[in-house]
Write a structure and sequence with these properties.
The protein is 33% helix and 21% strand. With 450 residues, it is α/β, with parallel strands linked by helices. The termini are far apart. It is an enzyme of class 6 (ligase).
Length: 450
């Protein structure tokens, strides 16, 4: 890692722990900063905070005392999940204290270039595809961000020969100031996280920060099928490399005559790609573009695309039980993701959906549910999704207490040849700590059917 003096003898507050906060606090301490950590969880229930305390780091736990902000901090490193209307963050703004996320720290110390991926949907799949293609091509990638390890931890171990492939959320990107990836990818942009950002415009502006510091010699891989992505590309100083599922391009990545192509060169027939779902072509094209720009061979790209079948919790094939195929798409935490999952199947689908109520309706899901044979709902949004199911003409609509109970209920109404799909269209936090936990509960329930 780079040895930087930027934070030496500076008073810095790390707000919120979890993995990113722990990593940021330890890194800043190593860089010579005077670090204070503040977390809402009491010290007695907070092993991470106790570990930092043992390292000589000041820890304030159990609440977020606003008066803490008057201790002369020169920087706040916040957990990405803490919104900017949090009183502590608002007080930092009043005092003129910069607020960043640990991704900014990772960039500042990294000896390796970053390949950064953001977007509303497809981030995890695209990040994994890029990582696998770079691995197959001998590019020595390290994976970081929302997938894999915390960025500031990975950056401490990276050497110049590595490439840090990082998935970034809008929450993380709002907290960068100098972050400058060698290659940035914007998979797509839709409406999401309005409970955090407030407006669609603010959400898209947060995503645009992935490219704001790019310049000559950098690349922005942009979805040419979306005007909102192209608007970001117009103001970027990077070289724009487009990709399109719908149009043939002479430059960039596209599908032409049944082949995935880059700059007019045929790479692989789409029929040979192992990853299911037409929506995954966006992810594949952007990953191919990043790989080709980085000198990965066609042979390495082909070896990945003919074997890679998906990321856990993202349209993940789980098992076949008595002729029924089960798919775990727990990472589908919004309507669009569920629409794309449903479009991947021509077979009859039994859909398991529901979760945290963010105040939205599900009318947009109606047209995508025409092929759904049975709908099983759960969680806070059960009733709203049932209304959408009725509007779609689904005759069998059931309600379960949770995902674990929804699985055997769906199986009871299924037949050989059916697909039983968990694609909730909602966040998990009403019943499960994370979408990963929800997906794991689904997998466990499926295996209990045998």
């Amino acid at each position: 890692m780079k040895t930087i003096k930027l934070y030496e003898h500076k008073k810095i507050l790390v707000l919120g722990l979890a993995k990113s906060g722990v990593s940021a606090a330890a890194l800043l301490h190593r860089l010579g900063a005077f670090v204070t950590v503040n977390d809402s969880k009491p010290l007695s229930e907070n092993p991470e905070a106790r570990s930092l305390l043992e390292q000589g780091i000041k820890v304030v736990c159990g609440s977020h005392p606003i008066e803490l902000m008057d201790e002369g901090f020169e920087l706040v490193v916040k957990n990405p999940g803490i919104p900017y209307h949090n009183p502590m963050i608002e007080r930092a703004a009043e005092l003129g204290i910069p607020v960043v996320t640990e991704v900014e720290l990772a960039y500042q110390i990294s000896e390796a270039p970053f390949i950064a991926i953001t977007g509303t949907n497809g981030k995890t799949t695209t990040t994994t595809l890029v990582f696998e293609m770079f691995t197959a091509g001998g590019k020595l990638p390290l994976i970081a961000g929302n997938i894999g390890m915390v960025a500031s931890g990975v950056a401490q171990e990276a050497v110049p020969e590595n490439n840090i492939v990082i998935e970034l959320s809008s929450f993380q990107l709002m907290g960068v100031s100098t972050f400058k990836p060698k290659i940035a990818i914007i998979t797509n942009l839709y409406e999401a996280h309005l409970d955090y950002h407030g407006t669609r415009t603010d959400y898209h502006q947060a995503k645009a920060r992935i490219t704001e510091n790019q310049g000559d010699g950098d690349y922005l891989i942009a979805n040419a099928d979306q005007e909102e992505v192209l608007e970001i590309a117009k103001v970027s100083n990077a070289e724009t490399v487009p990709f399109s599922v719908n149009s043939e391009l002479s430059r960039g990545a596209c599908v032409r005559n049944g082949w995935v192509c880059f700059n007019g060169e045929q790479i692989i027939p789409t029929a040979e790609i192992a990853l299911p779902g037409s929506h995954n072509l966006e992810n594949i094209l952007s990953a191919v573009a990043a790989s080709k720009l980085s000198g990965v061979s066609n042979e390495a790209i082909i070896s990945v695309l003919t074997t890679f079948t998906g990321v856990k919790h993202r349209l993940q094939y789980v098992a076949e039980v008595e002729g029924r195929k089960f798919y775990n798409d727990s990472k589908a935490t919004n309507i669009l993701a569920t629409q794309k999952a449903l479009s991947a199947f021509s077979q009859p689908v039994l859909l398991l959906a529901g979760g945290l109520d963010r105040g939205n309706g599900f009318d947009e899901l109606v047209s995508s549910m025409k092929g759904v044979k049975v709908l099983v709902t759960f969680g806070e949004t059960a009733e709203k999704i049932e209304l959408a199911g009725k509007a779609a003409g689904i005759k069998t609509i059931l309600r379960a207490d949770n995902v674990e109970k929804a699985v055997p209920e769906a199986f009871r109404y299924s037949a050989p040849g059916d697909v039983i799909l968990l694609s909730p269209a909602c966040a998990s936090w009403d019943q499960y700590k994370t979408f990963e936990v929800r997906g794991d509960m689904f997998i466990q329930a499926v295996h209990m059917l045998n």
